Amino acid sequence: MRTAEFDFALPAGLIAQIPAPARDQARLLVLDRAAGKLAHHRFVDLLEYLRPDDVLVLNDSRVIPARLRGLNIRTGGKFEALLLEENANNDWWAMLKPGKRARPGTKIEILDRSGRRASILATVLETNAEGHRRLRFSSTENILTELEALGEVPLPPYINRPFPRPEDRDRYQTVFARADGSVAAPTAGLHFTPEFLEKIRGRGVKVCFVTLHVGPGTFAPVKSAVVADHILHEERYEVGAETARLINGVKTGSKVIAVGTTTLRVLESVARDNGGQIVAGAGRTRIFIYPPFQFKIVDALLTNFHLPRSTLLMLASAFAAPGETRGRELVLGAYQEAIARRYRFFSYGDAMLIIDKTRDNSG
Q: Quick check: 61 and 179 in contact, CB under 8 A?
């Protein structure tokens, strides 16, 4: 398939710049992939599509305040760094802007969120093939413990404001976030509240978690002309024993519902490598899911609306018609309906549930 086939025009006014007033008051577009039918709901109506013994799986990775600002010690020039992955204590890979001024040996004094010098230094050690810089931090025992005081919420580039708002530190984070490591939120999970999760459990639904630390590549458009030529960024994941037990023990007629593309990628990656079973453990994945793709574990997908030409849109298209290519038409058709009805798109936007009603044990 060609990347251009996953393009669509989106009015700029539909890109959500702020979250809904309450997490669970977003809208929910439901695509019945078997019938090709759409239904319009509020997010709390998700309960109508859940049954006892279904397994709801969420990504509990926590977004770290990964954006730092600093000054070149020698010239006073400004830098902005987005921490990507920790190699060891005070040793990180980062995206640095402006990159052309960040040659090995460059020393950067880190600023706090008020623009004051924090007496912490970052030294550029090397550059990798992707243009990322390796930074060594000094004058601190561990930069990770300083991020709450120094760092900013790494909002995606389509949220147009120079600095995050105070409320972003809460709203660009799921209520069940636990494991530090993401530089982008697993956005489908942003709609859940503790109270709504308890209602779901009250229905007899089993709720469990995986961890996948989301990298900045989640926002990157596919630049290759042919989809299959794209190489997806690698991300770290972990699956606990209880999650593996619940999913492997799912009853006939019950569903495994993945909350978010990140959760789905973990489950399908692990299942692919273990004969269709979920095995507890940690690893790294760069699984790239696009049409046609045969899914081994996930029966329903809760997700947000994704960027044109993105790997996430391709994944949703694959899920809309497993093993076929017509899912692209189903999803883009649903997107056109969402645009016509003024749904809100991307991280702070509304949600979409892709489900096969013929698998619903309600009949």
A: yes
